[in-house]
């Protein structure tokens, strides 16, 4: 659009609007191009019934569903979580799913579990040794572990006692408490994924014909939400960590799964003991089995950034175009309206 000089206010606003629209359309066209391009076929390099899959955070939630679905298609699966009793349940489910699908469990190493904390270097080295002894290598690494945090930051610090009530000045004890809660969130959502990457990236790179890493992250890592300050910021840090790793290790396919609210009791892991403010996630959240299925499909297709539901990809783009609208919707969802 050509402008007279000096431009009139009307001409300037029209030019600015057309430029904004053009900028907004470019990501949409790129997204469409990505969606329509021919998908690679990883299964040609790693047959589904020969795939060696390590799932961290497999004792519950999305990780549990991912492990069971991989087992049902004949993959060899190592299930890792901190709760040994629950791991035994998942191991039994995976064995049953594998057998029911026509893939008999011919060896203990087809499906096995290791109780471990993914934020512990010693534990991750122990898991790596178990995988190496059982399979001699690894094809797919799924990181589905993490912790939640549910309160506004000032509420964690004891400064906010209610919406519309003047904030208090936190004491030294309050600030230290906030730092301790933040460190717990960092340990579960950033340090754990970091340690897992350092422990297993070399094995993946050296032993698989088509190595793949899946970080099960959150939509909150790319679209800010009230009451999710610590959760979102720590999940965002692990997302950027793995995005940078994907550039440093181009031979490994990285997938970043970003679902919106998922059903289940993930909020029980909250490091700040905050209340659930949104509508009952067990009634309104995404189904774990559907999210797990989309996760595995993304690995097979070697997709990178995966939003669940897919429409959230456009919500992410809209945040940069009309942030006030997205912020209003997020406030409404999490019951943070004044």
From TrEMBL:
It holds the Pfam family adh_short. InterPro entries: NAD(P)-bd_dom_sf, Sc_DH/Rdtase_CS, SDR_fam. Keywords: Membrane, NADP, Oxidoreductase, Transmembrane, Transmembrane helix. The chain crosses the membrane at residues 20-36. GO terms for cellular component: membrane. One of its GO terms (molecular function) is oxidoreductase activity. PROSITE patterns: ADH_SHORT. It comes from the Eukaryota. Putative oxidoreductase. Belongs to the short-chain dehydrogenases/reductases (SDR) family. PANTHER family: DEHYDROGENASE/REDUCTASE SDR FAMILY MEMBER 7B, DEHYDROGENASE_REDUCTASE SDR FAMILY MEMBER 7B. This is NAD(P)-binding protein. It comes from Hypholoma sublateritium (strain FD-334 SS-4).
């Amino acid at each position: 659009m050509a402008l007279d000089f000096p431009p009139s206010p009307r001409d300037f606003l029209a030019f600015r609007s057309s430029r904004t629209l053009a900028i907004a359309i470019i990501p949409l066209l790129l997204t469409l191009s990505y969606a329509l391009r021919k998908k690679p076929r990883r299964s040609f390099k790693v047959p589904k019934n020969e795939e060696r899959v390590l799932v961290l955070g497999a004792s519950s939630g999305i990780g549990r569903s991912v492990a069971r679905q991989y087992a049902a298609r004949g993959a060899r699966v190592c299930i890792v979580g901190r709760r040994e009793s629950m791991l035994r349940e998942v191991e039994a489910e995976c064995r049953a799913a594998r057998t029911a699908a026509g893939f008999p469990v011919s060896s203990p190493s087809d499906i096995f579990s290791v109780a471990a904390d993914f934020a512990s270097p010693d534990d991750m080295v122990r898991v790596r040794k178990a995988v190496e002894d059982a399979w001699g290598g690894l094809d797919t690494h799924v990181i589905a572990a993490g912790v939640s945090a549910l309160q506004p930051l000032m509420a964690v610090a004891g400064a906010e006692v209610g919406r519309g009530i003047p904030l208090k000045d936190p004491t030294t004890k309050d600030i230290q408490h906030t730092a301790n809660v933040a460190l717990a969130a960092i340990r579960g959502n950033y340090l754990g994924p970091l340690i897992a990457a350092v422990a297993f990236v070399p094995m993946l790179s050296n032993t698989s014909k088509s190595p793949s890493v899946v970080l099960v992250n959150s939509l909150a890592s790319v679209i800010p939400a009230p009451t999710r300050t610590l959760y979102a910021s720590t999940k965002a840090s692990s997302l950027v960590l793995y995005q940078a790793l994907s550039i440093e290790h181009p031979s490994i396919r990285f997938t970043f799964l970003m679902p919106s609210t998922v059903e289940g009791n993930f909020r029980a892991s909250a490091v700040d003991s905050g209340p659930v403010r949104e509508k009952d996630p067990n009634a309104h959240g995404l189904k774990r089995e559907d999210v797990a299925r989309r996760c595995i499909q993304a690995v097979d297709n070697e997709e990178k950034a995966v939003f669940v539901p897919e429409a959230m990809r456009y919500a992410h783009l809209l945040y940069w175009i009309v942030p006030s609208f997205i912020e209003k919707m997020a406030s409404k969802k999490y019951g943070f309206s004044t």
